[in-house]
Write a structure and sequence with these properties.
Strand content of chain B: under 5%
CATH architecture of the largest domain in chain A: 3-Layer(aba) Sandwich
Radius of gyration of chain A: 19 Å
Number of domains of chain B: 1
CATH class of chain B: Mainly Alpha
Largest interface: A-B, 31 and 25 residues
Structural class of chain B: mainly alpha
Oligomer: heterodimer
Mean pLDDT of chain A: 86
CATH topology of chain B: MetI-like fold
Structural class of chain A: alpha/beta
Shape of chain A: globular
Low-confidence stretches of chain A: 1-30
Radius of gyration of chain B: 22 Å
CATH topology of the largest domain in chain A: Rossmann fold
Largest sheet of chain A: 6 strands, mixed
Order of helices and strands of chain A: HHEEEHEEHEHHHEHEHEEHH
Distance between the termini of chain B: 71 Å
Number of helices of chain B: 8
Chain lengths: 286, 228
């Protein structure tokens, strides 16, 4: 465990010292003592006739930042949405912190009791491409809504917590502003604060900057980077290659309904093994 | 002969007020009682219609179909004259309250249902990933947004309700319209009609201004430039 922490910290300083990269490469070869926080096994998902995922296997360890990239329509977002149950899987197993939250068509795997699933899903934060803030609530109300209604935290304490989280994303001065008065970047930061207010064990980011004007992307990425520095476990679907490279411990490439590459960022970007990855990077970076 | 003893409009109406006032009371009492009963009923029915079990949804579909599909006068008459055959004898007031509430709620249920399904899927997903259950999602997020969107059509429904209270005459209740009719027939002058016309119109203005105010309060900073 100690070794793992060191690995994570080193990888995330962004100093390029990723000599550990080899040890982490390629799915199963990682440190056995590291705690697996998310495990997806043989995930299948289709929307009607359209097959989106065909046999996705993926594990995320505590403290890791895993980025998912790939061509649009490749099923990147669907992977995230299967993790926290926003999409029902057709086949496979989804485990969060050792609790089976979904299991279909897999002998020997059975979903945990509902209460246990609810408890473990409550520790899963998610940030959406389209923010999905509650338009009838102020920024602060957005942040404290779930702590109050779900965790039954008294209002005064929830407000303290909410202000703390808003300060965390640099928006404590916008606490009383309604979403309609905020810029896209500010909205997304409030959405991050809202997720953080539930004290999640890990965070899912579904294209968090794709709906933003270019000049607003940076402020959101900065917040996510700061989370990475604090060793928040994260899965991030993003098109921001520079950011992905800087923040990730592993980069996963999804194409044709499958994971075709799972490498540390250095290896992923500098010497892509898979021709599809190379072609994609060529298109994205040039 | 009629011309000689004719009083001025205001003097005449004041003279008739002791009779008229009973009708006015009936109309208003029915109106407010129905609003009070039907408002929560329609919210519940709308939520159930959107997300209830199949059997409940089917039942509610039957309900809105029957009550929106048949004339209110007929509903009143069927219950008032028909229920005694089933051994159920209700006072006219009971019949009026029950039938008007169910009828108004049938329309309003559909209005609110429209509001609920207009709330984006992302709102439900946000609630879900925050751990909110169905009831919390509805009460804290979906219904508050739906209510804002249904204010304009609801305003129309409320105006219609006030006018429709005049239909209670079909079950022997004296509302203000019926009372005015009586007075007009007795005295052969139409001043009482003018008076109730004024009351209906005034009530319509009042309703509109109440709803405008509600819209202003609820939407103040919210739905303007609403992006997401």
């Amino acid at each position: 465990m100690g070794e793992k922490t060191q690995v994570g910290a080193g990888a995330r300083t962004g100093d390029g010292a990723r000599a550990d990269g080899g040890a982490q490469a390629g799915g199963g070869a990682r440190d056995d003592t590291a705690e697996v926080i998310i495990r997806l096994t043989n995930l299948h998902k289709s929307f009607g006739e359209l097959s989106v995922l065909q046999g996705v296997d993926l594990t995320v360890e505590r403290g890791q930042v895993v980025s998912i990239i790939g061509p649009s329509g490749s099923g990147k977002s669907t992977v995230l949405r299967c993790v926290n149950g926003l999409e029902k899987i057709d086949r496979g197993v989804v485990e969060i912190e050792g609790v089976v939250v979904a299991a279909v068509g897999t002998p020997g795997a059975k979903p945990a009791p509902k209460e246990q699933i609810r408890a473990v899903l409550a520790k899963t934060g998610m940030v959406f491409q389209s923010f999905n803030l509650f338009p009838h609530m102020t920024a602060l109300q957005n942040v404290i809504e779930a702590p109050m209604t779900v965790k039954k935290i008294p209002k005064a304490r929830a407000r303290e917590l909410g202000m703390e989280k808003l300060r965390r994303v640099g928006l404590d001065d916008k606490a009383d502003a309604f979403p309609s008065r905020l810029s896209g970047g500010q909205k997304q930061r409030v959405a991050i604060a809202r997720a953080l207010a539930m004290e999640p064990d890990f965070m899912l980011f579904d294209e968090p900057t794709s709906a933003l004007d270019p000049e607003l992307v940076g402020e959101v990425l900065d917040v996510i980077k700061s989370l990475a520095r604090e060793h928040m476990s994260m899965m991030i679907v993003s098109h921001e290659m520079g950011f992905t490279r800087e923040v990730s411990d592993r980069v996963i490439f999804v194409d044709n309904q499958k994971i075709v590459a799972d490498n540390p960022p250095e290896r992923f970007f500098n010497s892509p093994e898979h021709p599809r990855v190379a072609a994609f990077l060529d298109k994205m970076l040039n | 002969m009629l011309i000689d003893d004719r009083l001025g409009f205001w003097q005449y109406i004041i003279d008739k007020m002791p009779i008229l006032i009973n009708g006015i009371k009936t109309s208003y009492l029915l109106f407010f009682a129905v609003l009070l009963i039907a408002a929560p009923l329609s919210v519940l029915a709308a939520v159930a219609k959107v997300s209830g079990p199949r059997a409940v949804r089917a039942l509610l579909n039957l309900y809105t179909w029957a009550f929106r599909g048949s004339p209110l006068v007929l509903q009143l008459s069927l219950v008032y004259y028909g229920f005694p055959y089933l051994g159920i004898v209700w006072q006219p007031w009971t019949v009026a309250l029950v039938v008007f509430s169910l009828s108004f709620a049938a329309y309003e249920t559909e209005v609110i249902r429209g509001g609920i399904i207009s709330v984006e899927k992302g709102q439900y997903e946000a609630c879900r990933v925050l751990g909110m259950n169905f009831f919390q999602t509805m009460r804290r997020v979906v219904v508050p947004q739906a209510i804002r969107r249904v204010l304009p059509p609801t305003c129309s429904e409320v105006i219609i309700l006030f006018k429709d209270t005049s239909l209670v005459t079909s079950i022997a209740l004296m509302d203000m319209m019926r009372t005015a009719q009586r007075i007009v027939i007795m005295d052969l002058r139409i001043d009482a009609f003018i008076a109730v016309l004024a009351i209906y119109l005034l009530m319509a203005s009042l309703t509109v201004s109440v709803f405008h105010r509600l819209e202003r309060i609820l939407n103040a900073s919210v739905l303007k430039e609403e992006g997401s």
